[in-house]
Specification:
The protein is an alpha+beta fold and 490 residues long. Helices cover 51% and strands 7% of the residues. A hairpin with a 2-residue loop joins strand 2 and strand 3.
């Protein structure tokens, strides 16, 4: 059979990732803060895009339930028909343009001042201050100390080489080499820094950190100092009987000293972390109205976009001499239109996904975490007729406010375990039960993982010991040997 070249006609369907589709996908997975930043950037770069009057909450809900695009009121039909010649308006009134878009500095300042007066108090973000770092706090104390220039150089090098716990991350020999100082000079400066606030900072290990704090309390020769210095590993394993024999003290004295050690700070840098806690603004909220739960999108602070009527008229001018400007403006108008469409589609998708989630998780809203049902992306995708990837993007970095608290939308997608009665139970519900069991145990005889698995089995939850251990570690609960407190303080 001879090879030959042929022309074949074939009809096929395929998805083309147009720039508009890529933009819609990108907007769908943005968080609220990222969406606000993108809108602000587009308002600055696209002259055809402007901010319209705010929309009431009821109007947003009515628009979403009806499934109609919000842009139908602000985008005229001629834009959708690529601005046909029959719909174009004649020449632009430049006087109107000047009156509407004044570039005078005085006008801008006046408008800005009046806007600030109308808006009232500053936003929460504008009242934030920079948190003092541990390094700045220590350098401030170093400057106040009566040290020579050479000692200050050594101190600055030590402070600049602390790890996230507040411990010295380099050896004294490295400090000597970097600052051309003797070992005795480094030890003197290091000792002085260790008694700065917080006490114990710049220690080389946990033992030194605790001993410095005890010395600062005037307990350098106490039983607690002896325990930290020579028996820290036994203290960690709570081998109190052996410690009593080696130290020659009573159990009461040993327990008192161990509680004193437990009150010390093993991480001096705690409280100086630069990861500031930010208030999360929910993207959507669920409220109970009557006997039904209603979903509301949080559009507070989000500008309502529309295409500028002025630039629509500019894009519709006739004449060959304005061809280049007209093409530019038409491109900007189309970009603004697609952005508004994409944002509206994002809001509709988020509304439908949230509505579907709580159709499955109504028991959670009524009774709490213990009644959370196992659910996967496929359940919601089939319910609303969307692809799983769309649901995944819609729930990424989104938060919902419910009567049970503030949760990430991803939180409601939980794996499940089989219960004894044949029903599925969410893993988060099992974690909550484990947490409740541990909180009610006797500290002298804490429950082992095997015993917890048995207690859950009595509640018709078939779970293995290793699964209990996995959930316990995920919740940062110590094993029973670490939770045991044989001697409680009276």
């Amino acid at each position: 059979m001879a090879l030959e070249i042929r022309q074949v006609q074939k009809l096929a369907q395929q998805l083309v990732m147009t720039p508009q589709l890529q933009q819609a996908i990108k907007l769908l997975q943005l968080s609220r803060v990222e969406l606000e930043e993108l809108i602000s950037l587009e308002l600055q770069e696209n002259p055809a895009l402007e901010e319209g009057p705010p929309q009431e909450r009821g109007e947003v809900l009515e628009t979403l339930v009806a499934g109609e695009a919000e842009i139908s009121e602000v985008i005229p039909p001629e834009i959708k028909r690529e601005l046909s010649t029959a719909d174009k308006i004649g020449t632009l009134d430049w006087q109107e343009y000047i009156d509407t878009h004044s570039n005078s500095v005085h006008g801008s300042l006046t408008a800005e001042a009046s806007r600030e007066e109308d808006e009232g108090p500053p936003t929460w973000e504008n009242t934030l201050t920079k948190k003092t770092s541990l390094e700045d706090h220590l350098v401030w104390q170093l400057r106040l100390s009566r040290l020579s220039d050479r000692e200050e150089t050594i101190g600055l090098y030590i402070i600049g080489n602390l790890d996230e716990r507040g411990y010295l991350a380099v050896s004294p020999e490295e400090v000597c080499q970097a600052t051309a100082a003797t070992h005795e000079e480094v030890e003197v400066v290091l000792k002085q820094i260790q008694f700065f606030d917080p006490v114990g900072v710049a220690a080389r290990d946990l033992r030194e950190c605790l001993l410095v704090q005890l010395e600062n309390l005037g307990l350098g020769a106490s039983l607690a100092a002896r325990m930290v210095s020579d028996h820290l590993s036994q203290l960690e394993s709570k081998r109190y009987d052996k410690l009593c024999r080696e130290l020659g003290v009573s159990v009461e004295e040993l327990v008192e000293a161990s509680h004193l050690i437990a009150s010390l700070e093993p991480r001096p840098a705690r409280g100086f972390e630069q990861d500031e806690v930010r208030t999360i603004i929910p993207d959507v909220s669920v409220e109970k109205i009557g006997d039904e739960y209603m979903v509301f999108l949080n559009d507070e602070g989000m500008p309502r976009l529309r295409v500028s009527s002025l630039y629509r008229r500019l894009a519709g001018q006739e004449g060959k001499e304005e061809e280049h400007a007209r093409q530019y403006l038409q491109e900007k108008v189309r970009a603004a239109t697609w952005l508004i469409k994409s944002i509206q589609q994002r809001q509709q998708t988020l509304y439908r996904v949230t509505q579907s989630i709580f159709k499955f998780q109504r028991d959670f809203l009524e009774l709490g975490v213990r009644h959370l049902k196992p659910m996967v992306l496929k359940d919601v995708a089939e319910d609303i007729g969307m692809h799983e990837s769309t649901v995944s993007r819609a729930t990424a970095n989104k938060y919902v406010h419910t009567c049970q608290g503030l949760y990430e939308l991803k939180y409601f997608f939980q794996s499940g375990l089989k219960s004894g009665n044949g029903e599925d139970i969410a893993s988060e519900s099992v974690k909550d039960k484990i947490r409740s069991i541990v909180s009610t145990e006797d500290p002298r005889k804490p429950y082992s993982d095997q015993y917890i698995a048995g207690l859950l089995g009595e509640q018709s939850i078939d779970i293995a010991r290793r699964t209990v251990a996995k959930y316990r570690e995920a919740m940062r609960i110590l094993p029973s040997s670490k939770r045991r407190q044989p001697y409680l303080r009276k």
